[in-house]
Amino acid sequence: MTFASLGLSEPILLAIGEQGYSTPTPIQAQAIPAVLAGGDLLAAAQTGTGKTAAFTLPLLHRLSDAQPARNARGQVIPRVLVLVPTRELAAQVAENVRDYGKHLKLRSMVMYGGVGMQPQIDALRRGVDIVVATPGRMLDHHGQRTLDLSAIDTLVLDEADRMLDMGFIHDIRKVLALLPRKRQNLLFSATFSDEIKALANTLLNQPKVIEVARRNTAATTVRQTVHPVGRDRKRELLAHLIRERNWWQVLVFMRTKHGANRLAEQLRGEGIGADAIHGNKSQGARTRALAEFKSGKLQVLVATDIAARGIDIDQLPLVVNYELPNVPEDYVHRIGRTGRAGAEGEAISLVCVDELRFLRDIENLIGRGIDRNLVAGFEPDPQERAQPIRVGRTVIGGGRAGSGPRRADAPRGQGGHGRGDAAGGHHGHNGHAGQGRRNDSQPRRDGGRGASRGAAPARRNGTTG
Questions:
Q1: Longest dimension (CA), the chain
Q2: pLDDT in tens, 208-247
Q3: Are 329 and 216 in contact (CB under 8 A)?
Q4: 319, 337, 372: which is the final residue of a domain?
């Protein structure tokens, strides 16, 4: 099967070829015809399966095949709204829209919090066909009457499970109430959880259902290895491996923003080019670090789980779990950053005795053991005993003041180290405390009415404006 056989227009096929693709992935082969047909869609697909192109390509085709929508003043107004949970993912989806639509006379823009609204307002006034947005900032624009939703004929909810996990259900319901009743709805999620099924029942009308990759399915193209090591020698081992194996463009995962900052600083002190990316960094700093990493200028990028959602590099060779995640599904998401598009990848985990319970949970989830490989000179002390791990205010394996002990496999959102905000809470776009707490200080849901400078403008034919 080829992209041409799916009925996409020549300008889109040209852009696909320029991106180096020729054969659609399974999710693309199934979703593109379904979206072109105009019906609703419920799709389970992880990041890295090509899901963004699965909805972007057919929507670009349909938009380019019809006349723009205009308001009473003759301004072009949006026909497609794509909602995503984080700024990084919004920027990534918008980049895909731009790349695949570069030969079309369509305009798109991205809107998220943490940056000034005026450049986004200016882009809307110039006219856009596609809006990629985080829910809070989108509602801000509608509240200020700068965004006209009256012509939206397609709504995409991307990474819907993550949006629900981050407490966006109320914002999603507000958005749905603002849109035209007659529209196409496309819902993409990593899993078909009970919450996702409930949302689909209220949102979708006789949807086509596609499921191509379960969340607990680790990519077969990723070689996974565990290096057992003492808890106090991880940094030393990581620096040794980077030098000895001449690693470059290494994505390193940590549990907390503080740990990510400290590790990046320590690596820089050893002459290794490293930077950290997490929710407490300014949008400009995160964007800059990500751009340098993607281009190959930055050797090591240290990331927390949520901040890494915007990292989408087809040929990323290596992922390192400096700390294993306490949620086993996050391990699958992490290593899914490498081994994409049929390329081989490698996932290295530096595991101390404190994390053996996490490793056991991960192996149970993926259904197999992971090879252990001792690195000469870095063998862990057999006398070392496991100690509780602190994540924010929570002690894993112990307890927290005012609460009982929290099992590592307890339901998310309980015990303080599930998928909520970091200690201290978070305020969404409406100023109310966010739901749940994250161990990452996530990209502040979407930042709401941030005051930082800069914004992502509308784009036309691959250029700004």
A1: 76
A2: 999 875 545 556 678 999 999 999 999 999 999 999 999 9
A3: yes
A4: 372
